[in-house]
Model the fold of this input.
Amino acid sequence: MTTRELTTRASRVLRPVLIGAIAIAFTIVPTVLRSPTTTLQATGDPCVNGVVPWNPYVVNCNLPTRSIPKVRGAAPDAGAIIACRDKPGCLSWYVNN
Done:
């Protein structure tokens, strides 16, 4: 085998590996950059000062209290509407479950 044959074989193997690594990087990097940097801390309060996206069940201190018990199919409360903003299917999942 000559050096040129080895180089050709190596480039045939490394090309798909490099393309795969670039594809994975393009999917992981935006996710890491968009992930929220704030975390909820357990303070003992029965409510959270803010809205947690995709979690309409979190009780917010700044919004009116929720009606308990929650009736299936009833109108969602303000916290659920805010938490489910721009998330298709989130409100229907909250209302019907």
Summary: The longest helix spans residues 3-34. The chain has two domains: 1-35, 39-97.
